[in-house]
Structure formats: C-alpha cells, structure tokens
Amino acid sequence: MVQQMIVGLVVIGCGVYAAWTLMPAGARRVLATHALKLSLPEFARKPLQRAMKPAGACGGCDSCGDEKKTTDAGVKPIRIHRMVKH
C-alpha cells in the first residue's frame, strides 16, 4: 500500500515536471504569476520567479534558460571534400 502511494507520487511529480518543461513560455509565465500569489517556501519560489522572466535572447522556445545571444562571429564555414577512390 505505502509502496503504491510512493510510486504514485513519483509518477505525478514526473508528469508535472514534464508538463512544465514542455509548456510554452507564455503559459508558464501565467501559471508562475498565479502560483507566486500563494505562500510557498523559498525553494519553490525560485523556479517560478525564473519562469516569469521574459523569453531568452535567442528568441527560441525559452526552455533551456540560456541567455546566449546568437551572433555570426562564431560561425565557421563547413568544407566538404570528395573522397578519392584508389
């Protein structure tokens, strides 16, 4: 009985994490705004505060949380050489 409850809690936790991760950034911001109105402990407030920040500089899906800027300075051309058969 206890083992089934623990497994159920783990499955629910994984489902919530997957839904939060795959959710669009706009929906996460809305949910984070509403959740921050509740009295939550500090460890639960930090990810919600991070989710309220605007989308990343890359203009992507904002799921990585990375603030990298995309520039052409790091772009290197790819050279393709034909293989010579002997």
Q: Which descriptors would you attach to this protein?
A:
3 helices, mainly alpha, 86 residues, membrane
Question: How would you summarize this macromolecular structure in one to three sentences?
Answer:
This protein is 49% helix and 0% strand. With 86 residues, the chain is an all-alpha fold. The model has no long low-confidence stretch (mean pLDDT 82).
Topology order in helix (H) and strand (E) letters: HHH
The average pLDDT is: 82
Query: How many angstroms does the end-to-end distance come to?
Result: 70 Å
- Report the total helices: 3
Keywords: Membrane, Transmembrane, Transmembrane helix
Pfam families: DUF6587
List the helices and strands and how they pair.
Elements: H1 2-22, H2 25-35, H3 42-51
Detailed description of the structure:
The chain is mainly α. The protein has a domain at 2-54. The protein is built from 3 helices and no strands. It has helices spanning 2-22, 25-35, 42-51. The chain starts with a helix and ends in a 35-residue tail after the last helix. The chain crosses the membrane at residues 6-27. Keywords: Membrane, Transmembrane, Transmembrane helix. InterPro entries: DUF6587 (IPR046494).
